[in-house]
Amino acid sequence: MRLLSRFARPRAGLALLLLLTGTAGASAQPASPSPESAPDAGLIEETVERAKDLPNLRSLIVSHDGSILAERAFGGARLDRPTNIKSASKTIMSALVGIAIDRGVLQGVDQPVASVLAQSIPSEADPRIRQVTIGHLLSMQAGLERTSGRNYGAWIGSDNWVRYALSRPFVDEPGGRMLYSTGSTHLLSAALTRASKRSTLELARDWLGEPLEIDVAPWTRDPQGIYLGGNEMALSPRALWRFGEMVRQGGMIDGKRVLSESWIRESWTPRTVSPFTGDAYGYGWFIREMRGQPVYYAWGFGGQMLYVIPGLGLSIVMTSNPTAPSREDNYIGQLHALVADGIVPAFLPKPDGETGSIGTGDRKPMP
């Protein structure tokens, strides 16, 4: 892991912002011990009841120190049935890249992606494409024009998704502002495939599926047969929970090492800020604060969510209707509120006389 010590550092302004919110220093401990006090079971029950009122919600799993406290399926969904986790796939891709670096398949985050994908770079591509690193792609700082949002259709309609992504014009310098783009994560899938000479599906099954004892179903492939990086992965809510538990425990599950603790630490280091939410972003993980607690979360279109709150020993999964935008009618805000207003307070010390109710009159504003 020669290059693992050479991770990019967050820019000064971002570091100051996160220091003020209490987030920056928290990323150094992936598996912190949780408080010893018993959780507020009534508040958790209220939160589950409140969740039932969200018509798009399909599942909810809440666990504390590995023990499941609440597990519900809604709208005909099943907790053991694979579902499209949409862009939460980007968080899974980050883990696969970390394992690839640990195993020497990739050199490190400072490795130029052109060193692996040179044959796919068009001759007319901007020379700056050779400055784009694995780390830039992970943190959405490649500088390339986005292939998400309104550009997504043209990208997946092209006959070569890798070549198309590499040929996008630069709208910022490599290492600049966050430009959320599924094309960037697809380049990581292509790099993994080329470097390992194995498909991303094979790697996911071998490196994650087997040790986590979860099923990883096949998902969308590009015209060249490369599995789509950063979207369309299919995992059951329970499988996504197992992944979250592994990360919460510092890369361990059932006594087995799956992912290095150093990679989780680096993935949870803030590197840029989302222009959509204002939340920090690391390597495939969004970062925010709830009730003074650092929260690391994966977010997929429609509301496919994995929250890991190591300071409280919490892993939380929510899956939703994958066809309805999660930002419409502030649905993502409602999901965050279930965590910030209901689940997190259930594990925090309460002042004398406080009931823990999350009724309308007692609810605190979401961070």
Structure write-up:
The chain has 367 residues and is of the alpha+beta class. The chain folds into two domains: 8-81 and 236-349, Beta-lactamase (3-Layer(aba) Sandwich), CATH 3.40.710.10; 87-233, 3-Layer(aba) Sandwich (Beta-lactamase), CATH 3.40.710.10. 31% of the residues lie in helices and 14% in strands. It has helices spanning 12-21, 41-51, 89-102, 114-117, 134-138, 152-156, 161-166, 182-196, 200-212, 237-248, 261-267, 331-343; strands at residues 57-64, 67-73, 83-84, 234-235, 252-253, 256-257, 272-273, 280-281, 286-290, 293-300, 304-309, 314-320. It has an eight-stranded antiparallel sheet with strand order 2-1-12-11-10-9-8-7, sandwiched between helices. Strand 11 (304-309) and strand 12 form a beta hairpin. 49% of the residues are buried.
Structure summary:
This protein has 367 residues and is an alpha+beta fold.
Helix content: 25-40%
Q: How would you describe the shape? A: globular
Rg of Cα set: 20 Å
Strand order of the largest sheet: 2-1-12-11-10-9-8-7
**What is the tally of beta strands?**
12
The end-to-end distance, rounded to whole angstroms, is: 38 Å
Q: So, the CATH homologous superfamily of the largest domain?
A: DD-peptidase/beta-lactamase superfamily
Low-confidence stretches: 1-28, 356-367
Number of domains: 2
H-E string: HHEEEHHHHHHHEHEEHEEEEEEH
Mean residue pLDDT: 89
Q: Quick one: CATH class of the largest domain? A: Alpha Beta
Instruction: Output the CATH topology of the largest domain.
Output: Beta-lactamase
Please tell me the CATH architecture of the largest domain by its name: 3-Layer(aba) Sandwich
Beta-strand percentage range: 5-15%
Count of separate DSSP helical elements: 12
Task: Outline the biggest β-sheet.
Answer: 8 strands, antiparallel
Structural class by SSE content: alpha+beta
